[in-house]
Amino acid sequence: MTSQRYWVVGGDYSCMAFESLRGAGQMAGPFDSRQEAETAWKLMSREHSSRATARYSIAVETFRTAV
Q1: Any residues with CB less than 8 A from the CB of 35 and at least 6 apart, and which?
Q2: Mean pLDDT across the stretch 9-32?
C-alpha cells in the first residue's frame, strides 16, 4: 500500500531563472493532505510576494506503508 505526504519547498532564488536558491531555502511539512499544503503554500507565498525572485511549490512524497 502507498501513501502520500505533501511538502512546501522554495525560497529566494538568485535570479529570475529560478535555477539556484540564495541561501538554504525553506521547507514546511509534512502535510497529510494537499489542502493543508496549499494553505501553507499560500501563506508562505504571500509573506514573500514583494520579492520577484521568491518561489514556493508543493512537492509530493509517495511512500510505501506496512499493511
Answers
A1: none
A2: 94
- Give CA–CA dist 18/11, Å, rounded: 10
pTM score, two decimals? 0.84
pLDDT score, position 1 = 81
Distance CA 41, CA 33 (A): 12
Q: What CATH number should be reported for the domain whose range is 2-64?
A: 3.30.70.2400
The CA distance from 28 to 40, in Å, is 8
Q: Which three cell numbers stand for residue 9?
A: 519547498
Cα radius of gyration rounded to whole Å, the chain:
14
